Amino acid sequence: MKNFSTVGTRLAFTTLLAAASAASAAPLTCEFRPDAPDSHTVVKGDTLWDISGTFLQKPWCWPTVWGMNREEIANPHWIYPGQIIWFDRAAGRLRLGNRIEADGGVAAVPGDRLQPRIRTEGLGKDAVPSIPPGVIEPFLTQPLIIEDDELKSAPRIMATQEGRVFLGKGDKAYVRGDLKGNSAFQVFRPGTPLKDPVTRQVIGYEAFYLGTLKLQTEAKPGADVHTFTVSTANQEMGKGDQLRAVPPTPLQNYAPHPPGQPVVARVVAVYGGVTHAGQNQIVSINRGKLDGLDIGAVLQLYHAGRTVSDSTAKTGWFGREQQVRLPDEEVGSLFIFRTFKHISYGLIMQVTAPVEVGDVAKSPE
């Protein structure tokens, strides 16, 4: 491996913003690691985050060094085990090549200008994920957050088969409410209200996931009771529990990238009801789709600066101490993997101190 220094190597680029805000966006700077290798051969088990961290000081800079656009960021099928990531030091870019075969049939040299692109065979079966998928898979399709408008309009179980208190797999459930053309539903029970740490207003409810129902017979004209069958029962479900249509399977492999617009959020809750979170734990924040967050967006986490008295600077007749707010202290990074209207869930990727409710999460600087 060549021993070139990359100290001071920087890439300034216009953040990948929506067209309406691109002109006013401040340039974002990425920096390569001083010990970045000349190349990396992708192996099974790699993640985009890990590979990024091999070359870059901040892993969320990955799309920057590829010059990727919004469509390419959202494409989950573009890098596979066996391919080689080359560090083109002169251009300050990473390039994608193929493994050099034993017979020399496929050349892969740093000058190759291959770019990430979709594979037509296998369509993502072996594609490298953005982050370790096993950590977040249980949270991708289950209803984690129920927002107020959903709570009011959600269909509900109004009666059970033979008046049973709880339903199990194969039992019938009678449901009232507008199904909106859907036939497969998740059953949930509203849980703890989530309050915005700043406004103290309730912005959603954590949902207890109970199982799934499948439509057996839709209500006939003039009636409003639908007959369902319990497909799965993770927990006891019964009269009064509510329904939500099963969402489509989300794309799980968005490349890490800065938000499309400046975001300043606060940590609302740590999943599981604990007060502090560390690496690979999940937190919710008080910003969502309507605030410009999408899957794969990366935020920096900060402990909010405390307000303290400055005993070295006193004012007034009675020598009152000035109140000064200390700077926010960066403690880690957050990868957004699930978004709702006003709330998002993120996985803590790196952390130097425990994250707690009220901490700040904002766009990378």
Automatic annotation (TrEMBL):
Protein name: LysM peptidoglycan-binding domain-containing protein
Start and end residues of each LysM domain: 38-87
Keywords on record: Signal
Any single Pfam family the record assigns to this protein: LysM
Gene3D superfamilies the UniProt entry points to: LysM domain (3.10.350.10)
Source species, domain of life: Bacteria
Origin organism lineage: Bacteria, Pseudomonadati, Pseudomonadota, Betaproteobacteria, Burkholderiales
Extent of the signal sequence: 1-25
